[in-house]
Design goal:
- By secondary structure, the protein is mainly alpha-helical.
- Helix content is about 75%, strand content about 0%.
- It has one domain.
- It is built from eleven helices and no strands.
- The longest helix has about 35 residues, at about 130-165.
- The two termini are about 30 Å apart.
Length: about 280
C-alpha cells in the first residue's frame, strides 16, 4: 500500500515536469550512474585525495563553531529586545545585518588561523585561484548531478510526512528563505540574497570543510569518514526535516573538497544550490 502511494505520487510529480526539466533530470541520472560505475560506488573515488597537513589544536574547529553560534544567538536576542517598536521587516534587516557582520569577522579570524596552522598557509587550506575556472566547471557538474537527488529526498520527506501526519503536513522552510518570501521590501531582499547566496556559503565552507573536515583528515580519519562526520554536524544545524537532503548535499561538497583540495569548488556548489533554491522559490516553483 505504501509503495503504491509513493509510486503514484512520483508518477504524478513526473507528469508535472516540462520537457526541459525531464532532459535535465535524465542527464543528471546518467552522470550519477556513470560516476557510481567508474568509482565502484564511490569506494575508489578518493584514492588519491590530497592530505591537508595542519597543526590545528583539537579544540579549534569546535571552538569556532561554538563561538559563532553563541554570537549569533546573543546578537539576535539583543536586537529583538533593543528594537521593539520598529516594523518587522526593519527588525529583520537589522538582525541579519548583525549576522553578516559576525560571519565576516569570523571568516577573517579563520583566514588568519589557516595562515598560522596549515602547512602551506591559505593554499593548504584550499584557497587556490589558479584553477578557478576548472573549479567552476567541476562545481557545476556536481551540482547538476546532486540537485535532483536533493529534491527527491525533500519530496520523499513530504510524502512520508503526509502519510504519517496527514494531508496538512508541510516541510519546514529555511528561516532565511522565509524572510525573503514573506517580505517584499527591496532593501531587505537584497540583503538576504547577499547573506544566503554569497556570504553564508563561503562562511559555512570555511568552517565545515576548511576547518572541521581538514582537522578530521589530519587525525587520520579516512576521506569518506571525515566527509560523513562533517556532513552530520553541518546538517544538524539546518531544519530537521531537511536533514536527509542537506546531508547528501554536504557530502557532495565534502567530496568536491577532498577530490580537488580546493575550497573554492564546494563554495561554488553551495553558491549554486542556495541561488537556484531562492530563484525557484521566488518564481513559485
Amino acid at each position: 500500500m505504501i509503495f503504491s502511494i509513493i509510486l503514484g505520487s512520483a508518477a504524478q510529480a513526473a507528469g508535472g515536469f516540462s520537457a526541459g526539466e525531464l532532459v535535465f533530470l535524465s542527464a543528471a541520472a546518467v552522470l550519477l550512474v556513470r560516476w557510481l560505475i567508474n568509482t565502484d560506488f564511490g569506494t575508489r573515488a578518493l584514492e588519491k585525495s590530497e592530505y591537508r597537513r595542519n597543526s590545528m589544536p583539537d579544540y579549534l574547529p569546535f571552538a569556532i563553531m561554538f563561538g559563532w553560534l553563541m554570537l549569533t544567538a546573543f546578537s539576535s536576542h539583543l536586537m529583538e529586545n533593543l528594537l521593539p517598536s520598529i516594523a518587522e521587516w526593519q527588525r529583520k534587516f537589522v538582525i541579519y545585518s548583525g549576522f553578516i557582520a559576525i560571519e565576516i569577522i569570523v571568516m577573517l579570524i579563520i583566514l588568519q588561523l589557516a595562515k598560522r596552522y596549515f602547512e602551506e598557509g591559505l593554499r593548504g587550506f584550499g584557497i587556490r585561484f589558479r584553477k578557478i575556472f576548472s573549479d567552476i566547471t567541476a562545481a557545476a557538474g556536481i551540482f547538476i548531478v546532486i540537485w535532483p537527488v536533493v529534491i527527491a529526498l525533500l519530496y520523499a520527506v513530504q510524502i512520508i510526512g503526509k502519510m504519517i501526519v496527514g494531508p496538512g503536513f508541510e516541510i519546514e522552510k529555511n528561516e532565511g528563505l522565509s524572510v525573503i518570501l514573506e517580505n517584499s521590501q527591496l532593501s531587505l531582499r537584497i540583503l538576504m540574497v547577499f547573506f544566503a547566496v554569497v556570504l553564508t556559503p563561503i562562511f559555512e565552507e570555511f568552517v565545515f570543510r576548511g576547518l572541521l573536515q581538514s582537522y578530521l583528515r589530519n587525525i587520520n580519519y579516512g576521506p569518506w569518514v571525515s566527509i560523513l562526520i562533517a556532513s552530520i554536524l553541518f546538517s544538524a544545524l539546518h531544519p530537521g526535516m531537511h536533514f536527509p537532503a542537506i546531508f547528501v548535499l554536504s557530502a557532495a561538497m565534502g567530496y568536491a573538497y577532498e577530490k580537488s583540495g580546493s575550497l573554492l569548488r564546494p563554495i561554488f556548489i553551495h553558491f549554486l544550490f542556495n541561488g537556484v533554491t531562492i530563484a525557484l522559490a521566488l518564481l513559485g516553483r
